[in-house]
Amino acid sequence: MKKMLFPVLVVFTLLSACGPQPVRALDQFNMNQGAARVYYYQAYQPSSSDPTKTIKATFQLTEEIVDRTVVPAYVIAHAKRQLKVIQADPNWSGDTTTQASEIWYVVSGQRIYSQKTAVDPTNINVNSMTLSYDFPLEPGKNWCPQLYDPKDPTHKQITDCRLSGEREVVDHTTFTSDAGTFNDCYNIVDHYSDGQIFQRFCTGVGVVMLSFDHAGTKFGFQQSLSSYLIGTP
């Protein structure tokens, strides 16, 4: 029996190495230095002169990773966004300031968090951030992007996120645009009381499509990936 111990250990080690490995968030969402995603972005709203009519504006939205910092247990990626007007209907008065000009992503294990203010690498608190992605993605999976209620002084963890929003992975799909064809993608829906935000997330790239239509009004937007740069790992 003692002579069999070494071969058994070798086989066990090989099987363990060949077993399923944890999904790395950085392999799912490209956050390389210099990585850039360029979107065709169209917003629409009711006309101020005639609310029964819809007016539109078209933009080019660019998100670029301008800095990436690695600290113990975390990776911080700083992204800058630019919104350039391509065309707008007369009387367009849409407020584009709601589009964050900067965003910080924090990668922790299989999760990606985000926030619109700078992250202090010496004092990272992911509980105060938005849980953007919880990998691995798979149909039927859901989570609360807002983990804690900032309006609650006790900061109790949110267990029912129907009011604050619930994110659900609906199905596995493909995506084709001017940027190319992507075969490993997921349709994700954010459920809110006043409407739903739909997005398509493709492995190795990130968000390739995003849309929102406000319940009861002619207000919303659609964006689709038109090109992207891989950047430097």
Mean pLDDT: 86
CATH topology: YmcC-like fold
Number of helices: 2
Describe the oligomeric state of these chains in a short phrase: single chain
Structural class: mainly beta
* Strand composition percent: over 45%
Strand arrangement across the biggest beta sheet: 6-5-4-3-2-1-12-11-10-9-8-7
Reading off the top of the CATH hierarchy, the class is best stated as Mainly Beta
Overall CATH architecture: Beta Barrel
Structure, described:
It is a single chain. The protein has a single domain, classed as YmcC-like fold. The model is unreliable at 1-17 (pLDDT under 50). A hairpin with a 2-residue loop joins β9 (180-192) and β10. 8% of the residues lie in helices and 49% in strands. It has helices at residues 5-18, 25-28, and strands at residues 36-46, 54-71, 74-88, 102-108, 111-115, 130-134, 142-143, 166-177, 180-192, 195-202, 206-214, 220-229. The chain is mostly beta strands. Strands 6-5-4-3-2-1-12-11-10-9-8-7 form a 12-stranded antiparallel β-sheet. The protein has 2 helices and 12 strands.
SSE topology:
Blueprint: H1 5-18, H2 25-28, E1 36-46, E2 54-71, E3 74-88, E4 102-108, E5 111-115, E6 130-134, E7 142-143, E8 166-177, E9 180-192, E10 195-202, E11 206-214, E12 220-229
Antiparallel strand pairs: 1-2, 1-12, 2-3, 3-4, 4-5, 5-6, 7-8, 8-9, 9-10, 10-11, 11-12
Task: State the gist of this model.
The protein is mainly beta. It is built from two helices and twelve strands.
